[in-house]
Amino acid sequence: MDPNDRPKTKRRNKRSLARFVVITIIVLIALISVFYIIDNPKIFNRIKGFFTGNNSPEDEEVIPEIDIIEEEDLQQQTQEPVENDQKEGLWERITSIIRPEIEEVSDTSYPTQLTLNLYFMGLGEDTGLVPEEVTVIAGDPKTAVINTTRELLEGPEKSYHIPIIPGGTELLSVEIYENLAKLDLNQAFMENSLDSNIFDRQIIYSIVNTLTEIPSIKGVIFYIEGKRIKVYGNVDLSIPAIRDESLIKVPESGEEKADID
């Protein structure tokens, strides 16, 4: 090979390398420009308007003014997240899908008030429990149980309803475990009981049937001053006491009783 040909070969290689670098840079610039225009469609409208001479006011960037937000502005702001969705990351897109479900759950919040029945003995009734409707403050299951129990311990408003829970009974504390109400009462609930051979069941289910009127409460566990009781007279409380509809006597339609002064 002629030594004089070597410089020519080197020059060709350098030119080829330079040409390749220039082409690569041009391709990269073109790709970046394309992606930028896709993410910012207003840029494409401006370029099109530059060549056509039609720059519409809608394509121009509007600098927001500090002013009172009116209803139309509020509606426009609520649409902005849809336009900016392409700029959100993967995590933001995932949370935006989950968020509506979370908001839907929060919308079904616990009622602030509950209208339910308290159960007492009825005048002339030997075994049945009769309802008396009241409205209590709620907001959550625990608050509902506390206020309902207090209403029950205060006794009935109607003169022909008889309180059956032992006198002096006080509510010490309430805990909610899943669908169960853990009710802690003072010692008077045990000591001041009526004739246990007859009314033990009515006493327990006056409380149980009342508290299970509360949404989500399915049973009651009884405590006396912090210690769980598993029997009350002849009533087995080793398992949570659940509602017993057989003890409820519903007044017949149109039946009314006059209050006794």
Please, could you describe this protein's structure?
The chain is α+β, with helices and mostly antiparallel strands. The protein has two domains: 8-53 and 72-105, no CATH class; 113-247, no CATH class. The chain has helices at 5-39, 41-52, 71-83, 90-107, 141-154, 188-191, 196-211, and strands at 113-122, 129-137, 161-162, 171-177, 180-185, 219-224, 227-228, 231-232, 235-236, 241-242. Strands 4, 5, 6, 7 and 10 form a five-stranded mixed β-sheet that branches. The model is unreliable at 58-71, 77-88, 97-107 and 257-261 (pLDDT under 50).
The SSE string, one letter per element, is: HHHHEEHEEEHHEEEEE
Regions with pLDDT < 50 over 5+ consecutive residues? 58-71, 77-88, 97-107, 257-261
What's the domain count?
2
Helix/strand/pairing class, anyone? alpha+beta
Q: Over the alpha carbons, how many angstroms does the gyration radius reach?
A: 39 Å
Spell out the key features of this protein.
261 residues, alpha+beta, 7 helices, 10 strands, 43% helix, rod-shaped, disordered C terminus
Entry summary:
The chain has helices at residues 5-39, 41-52, 71-83, 90-107, 141-154, 188-191, 196-211; strands at residues 113-122, 129-137, 161-162, 171-177, 180-185, 219-224, 227-228, 231-232, 235-236, 241-242. It is of the alpha+beta class. The chain folds into two domains: 8-53 and 72-105, no CATH class; 113-247, no CATH class.
Q: Secondary-structure map with pairings?
A:
Elements: H1 5-39, H2 41-52, H3 71-83, H4 90-107, E1 113-122, E2 129-137, H5 141-154, E3 161-162, E4 171-177, E5 180-185, H6 188-191, H7 196-211, E6 219-224, E7 227-228, E8 231-232, E9 235-236, E10 241-242
Helix pairs in contact: 1-2
